[in-house]
Each structure stands twice: as structure tokens, then as C-alpha cells.
Design brief:
This protein is of the alpha+beta class. The protein has one domain: Sufe protein. Chain: A (Alpha-Beta Complex). About 45% of the residues lie in helices and about 20% in strands. It has a 3-stranded antiparallel sheet with strand order 1-2-3, with helices on one face. A hairpin with a 4-residue loop joins β1 and β2. α1 crosses α2, α2 runs parallel beside α5 and α3 runs antiparallel to α5. It starts with a helix and ends in a 7-residue tail after the last helix.
Amino acid sequence: MELKQLYREIVNEHNMHPVHKGKMESADLVLRGVNPSCGDDITLQLKIDGDVITDAMYEGSGCAISQASVDMMADQIIGKKKDEAIKLAGTFMGMIKGEITDEESIEALDEAAALQDVAHMPARVKCAVLGWHTMQEMLEHPEKANE
């Protein structure tokens, strides 16, 4: 199977059958992320135990890229320490912007690496980074995240 085809299938799978979509009971951090240019609108919810993200869910709607990206991101950050999640967000955004291209860094993103091609689609960059940016914002500025 061609790599681009595989990437498309991964994105479609996360968009059509998201694992982490829904309302979380008693989330510790909740933050809404909106991309007004194309109507993506998510509310990210995290459960935190000490320094570790123990669960991540989101609600909202938007294009396939935004929805698949936030679902893949949730997969990646559950079980990670906050600073690890923030570092992953930096790697993801660097990849999407075409600034990070070395395979080792990109491999750390696991399935989210499927969105690497978005680097060649400037109009879709905001869609892909919405969930990651929202997560980074809420972890770095928890005072902005409320229920």
C-alpha cells in the first residue's frame, strides 16, 4: 500500500471512528479551541493526576483533519507527563510547519505523523494544529482552562 494512502486511511479512521470523542465527567482542565477560518471548534478535556495526563477527550466539530488530529493527539498524550505532552506538541507543530523533518522526531508522534503532508497544504495547517495548540495552551496556562 502506498504511504499516502495509508496516511489517508489513518486520518479517515480517526475522523469516522474517534476513540476519544465525548464528554468527560469531572475533567481537571477544559479549554475550547476555535479555528474561525474554517469552522473547526473543539473543547478539549484533560484529567491530570499530579504531573501525568491520565485521560483526554474532546467534543466539537470541524473538518476531517482537525478531528482526526485531536483524536490522534489524545492517543499520544494519555499516560505522558505534562512536559512530555508539551514537547510532543512542539514536535507536531514543527512537523506541520515543515521545520522538523528528521524521522526520529517524527516517529515520536506515532500515528499523528500521518499528517506530515499537511506541511504542503498551508490552508490546512491551522486545522491540524488546533487540538495540539489547545492542549499546549491549557497545560502551560492552566488558569485559562476552566469547566
